[in-house]
Every structure is written in structure tokens, then in C-alpha cells.
Amino acid sequence: MNVIVCMKQTFDTEAKITLTDGKINEEGVQWIINPYDEYAIEEALKIKEATEGTVTVVTIGPARVEEAVRTALAMGADDAVIVDDPAAFGDEFTAAEVLAAVIRTRTYDVILAGNQAVDDGSSQVAVRLAQLLDVPHVSTITKLTFDGAVAVAERDAEGDTEVVEVKLPALFTAQQGLNEPRYPSLLGIRKASKKPVEHVTVAGIGLAENAIAKRVAVTETFIPAQKGAGRILTGDTPERVRELVRELRQTSKVI
After folding, report:
1. Phi, psi at residue 159, to the nearest 5°?
2. Which one of 132, 159, 234, 253 has the fewest beta carbons within 10 angstroms of its own beta carbon?
3. The Electron transfer flavoprotein alpha/beta-subunit N-terminal domain covers which part of the protein (predicted)?
């Protein structure tokens, strides 16, 4: 099977984020593969190993994304496509249109992506992509198997397990619990430097900049206010209840 993985580079989830003029300051920030996309890459590699297929990674971003791409190649992916044209750096609408244009030029059986990106958490791009490609999709899967040209996916459904069958080609989004992503081996790291990485522009994949311009404008980005220290109420139960109600009404103003 030929598998395409849609990957995004995000800042390290443990990084300290600061803002400059209302924008995230990238200086000194460690960039990594979006953690949910790591599950997608691992699942793609498992499919490749079971079916003697191929894995292609597709991503959008500036020059720094090549580091994440090389990590995916070191894990075992075969090749990659990077759309490093600033015209592609829009919103979820833009990303889905760009990814669809790239993927339409490829032969594939399965598309995998992370359930969401840890930076914006929108969970939109993959399902938009499935709509554009006119393929079925199953989100937040925890297990994926195949029976010929049919995929059987499992996902959590409010404490139960939902089983979904879809015909291939199809798109799936991965979440924690699907697998345990591997670490790149030393041999894999050496091989990654020789694997093909194609750089493309928006015009090169047949898109007009005005047709994929972002539809959403971010009006404000801010860091949540620090929480104050907790307070332990003393006294008997009726007294503590009265004090709690007073605090909620007069100080916190939530009731």
C-alpha cells in the first residue's frame, strides 16, 4: 500500500512561549514533529512494513520544517514533499487546499494525519482534505486493520469502542493509543540525508494565491494570566461554605 502522511512542525509542548507584538516569538523555541502526527507516521510505517508499500510525507512550512521532515525520513518514510511557499502559510482552509493539490498528483491507498496540531488544536485540516479529495475519513482512531480493499478502524466513543469500515482509498486521523512511535535509528538518520525531498510552490502545484487566501483572521493572541496561590478555608463546615460563597461572589465574581 502507498501511504501519504500529512505532517506539521510545531513548537515543543514543553517550550516556554513568549509573545512579541502579539505574535509568538520563535527565537530559542525548539521545533518538533506535531506529537499526534508522530502516531500517523508510525502507523504508516507499520502499513509499509506489512504490505511492502511506500510512505510519503507532505508538509507546509518555512525552511525550518526540513528538520522535522528529515526526522520522519529517519524513522523510515521514503520521500517527502515540502510546500515552502509563503502563499501556502494561511489558515486551515489554505492548508487543506494546498495538501489536496499535492496529493492529487500522487497514487495512494491511505492518508494519515494527526487528530490535531498542538499549536492551534483546530482538528480541521484533515477532514477538510478528505472532503476535497472525495474520500471517506475516520477521525481519532485507536486501531487500524485491513481486509483487502476495506479498512477497519476503531475509535473511542464516550467510553465505548466504535468500529467503522470504509473502502480504500481513505483518510484517517491518529490519536494517542494508536501505537508507540519509534525513535530514528543511527542507520535511519544516515539514510535520511539521501532520501528525496521535493520543494514545491503554490504556482507549481497549479494553485492561484488569491484562490487559497486564508478565510480566518486571528484578532488576538495572548498568554493566559497566571493563577494565584490556592487558599484553604478554615472553620466548621457552615462557616467554610459561607466564606466560599462570599469569595465566589465578591472576589471571583462567578456567581
Report:
1. 95, -15
2. 159
3. 21-209
